[in-house]
Amino acid sequence: MGTLGFWRLAQADPEWIAAVDPDGTQHRAGDLLARSNRLVHGLRELGLRPGDGICGLVPNGADGLVLYLAALQAGWYYTPINWHLTGPEIAYIVTDSEAKAFFVHPRFAAEGARGAEAIAPERRFLLGEGDGFRAASELTGGQPDTAPADRTAGATMHYTSGTTGKPKGVRRPLSGLDPDDSAELMTFLLGLFGITPGRPNAHLVTSPSYHTAVTQFGGTALHLGHTLVYMDRWDAEEMLALCERHRVTNSHMVPTHFKRLLALPEQVRKKYDLSSLRWMIHAAAPCPVPVKWAMLEWWGDCVYEYYAATEGGGTLATPEDWKAHPGTVGKAWPISELLITDEQGEPVPTGTPGTIYMKMMGVQFEYKGDPAKTAANRLKDHFTVGDIGYLDEDGFLFLCDRKADMIISGGTNIYPAEIENELMVHPKVADVAVFGIPDEEWGEQVKAVVEPAPGIEPGPELAAELLASLEGRLARMKWPKSIDFIAEMPREPNGKLLKRKLRAPYWEGHDRAI
Q1: Percent of the chain topping pLDDT 90
Q2: Is the dihedral of CA 392, 398, 403, 406 positive or negative?
Q3: pLDDT tens across 55-84, in order?
Q4: For residue 349, is it within any domain?
Q5: DSSP secondary structure code for residue 148 in this structure
Q6: Count of C-beta atoms within a 10 Å radius of residue 122
Q7: At which of 178, 207, 222 does a domain end?
Q8: Amino acid 410: pLDDT
């Protein structure tokens, strides 16, 4: 141990450009180090102790990075809050996480002020000037730039998107390690993909940093000595321009990004030099096989995939793995284990779909304040997020769908993801969601909601054309009974589809909402 970790690297090379904000502002490692040190000194004066938590409602960029770096060297939990939430939802997380300080960026001051009512006035800070908050500069002004004494590793505590009920914080015990040693252990994750430390390397942050994977991959790249290049909101051509400008070597993406990149005109796609790309990693949603093939053809063998959960454990598919097993999300990590079970929790044979359970050696977690939820998702020392999948004879995992999204029609299990993948590849489709709606005879019937590609007219003709495209590719019983159209699909910025929102109207007045 002893060569990696942001704080060590920043002391060794304070001139290294560690982060680039969306507006192009560059931040030297030495400056970020000094800012994170001042913040620790200031918060300690406010009474924060190891094990306490802080929350941040901040956009992508150096401001949030400083909160993260302060917490991770002072033994605190850092919770970045989803900036799409409303005041009461923000207040819930500030309260539930037992935050001892809450930082808000002026951009989110309106909802942030409503959320801040959950915490004492002297513990609310605005990263700027404004009413109802203390200026964060009050906390850090006059504090020394020097490293705080008694440094100890902190952690992030992300809130799961809460597909049922209130979101829950995923909390891990603190390690008690030196912060840089702890950060170096974290780099194991990127090591699985073969990602190398040092310069010149740049990691493009394509999604909001309040998502677990975005923080994990971005933070870990930083601890490897890579430059973090932040996007404010994702745009296909802007992403290509940033990759060329900053010689980006690695990033973390979702399949929706691929679909939108592939929709760019050929001359735009050819305009940018992407020769620096080495590890473009994607996850979070199933990627249709033709979309992935198209990305590999365009970018070459730098497209890696994994499947994992905030709670820990996962799989990895290298470009070579995937080409040999198209559609797989990979094999279990060396320190992780997979188990596929039936409804009774018994293991199922190879090739048979079942509930996916995972475990990661030495990693324990709990849903904060919810032992019942923690226990409900466990099978001995394995846990599940409710996904359905199967293993092939080589141990490669294939996803079918989330258990909650499975449609049971006439007693047959139908997996929406399979239907979505077939519809998604149609050139007239920008985005698609498939789910079950009530059916008097069959229990449920298959409904598709489609966001047409730009310039395409929605209507019965398009619906008929899309259904006809399934001929010979999908069993008739899996075909949507009907297709509705929507101007824009409700997705979280990490690519996660908000199916509940789409599904709810169809189940009104029925006793069984899935």
Answers
A1: 65
A2: negative
A3: 999 999 999 999 999 999 999 999 999 898
A4: no
A5: P
A6: 11
A7: 178
A8: 64
Residue 4 to residues 11, 183, 191, 226, Cα–Cα distance (Å): 11, 7, 13, 11
Total domains present in the chain = 2
Which amino acid is located at 392 in the chain? Answer: D
First to last CA, the chain: 49
Contacts 24+ apart (CB under 8 A), 367-376: 367/160, 367/168, 367/169, 367/170, 367/171, 368/96, 368/97, 368/157, 368/168, 368/169, 368/170, 368/171, 369/96, 369/168, 369/169, 370/168, 373/168
Q: How many angstroms separate the Cα of 204 from the Cα of each of 78, 111, 129, 249?
A: 22, 28, 30, 8
Which among 272, 237, 236 has a CA at the least distance from the CA of 254?
236
- CATH number reported for the structural domain that contains residue 162 in this entry: 3.40.50.980
Q: What residue numbers bound the domain in which 435 lies?
A: 412-507
Strand partners, 156: 78
Query: Mean pLDDT across the chain, nearest whole number?
Result: 90
For residue 491, the 8-state DSSP code is B
**If you average pLDDT over residues 474-487, what whole number do you get?**
89
Residue 164 pLDDT level (bands cut at 50, 70, 90): very low
At 423, the pLDDT band (50, 70, 90 cuts) reads very high
pLDDT of residue 26: 98
Residues with Cβ within 8 Å of residue 184, at least 6 apart in sequence? 1, 2, 3, 4, 5, 223
Which residue, 178, 213, 247, sits at the end of a domain?
A: 178
Closest CA to 44 of 75, 79, 87: 75
| b/e burial code for range 78-87 (CB count within 10 A of at least 16 → b) | bbbbbbebeb
In a domain, 65, yes or no: yes
Output the domain CATH number for residue 424: 3.30.300.30
Q: Residues 346-360: pLDDT tens digits?
A: 999 999 999 998 887
Given a cut of 80, whether residue 278 has pLDDT beyond it is yes
- Determine if the peptide bond prior to 347 is cis (ω within 30°): no
213 domain residue, yes or no: no
pLDDT in tens, 235-276: 999 999 999 999 999 999 988 889 889 999 999 999 999 999
59, 159, 214, 374, 507 from 92: Cα distances, Å: 20, 11, 23, 19, 28
- pTM of the complete model: 0.80
Neighbour count for residue 223 (Cβ, 10 Å): 25
**Residue 33 domain-assigned?**
yes
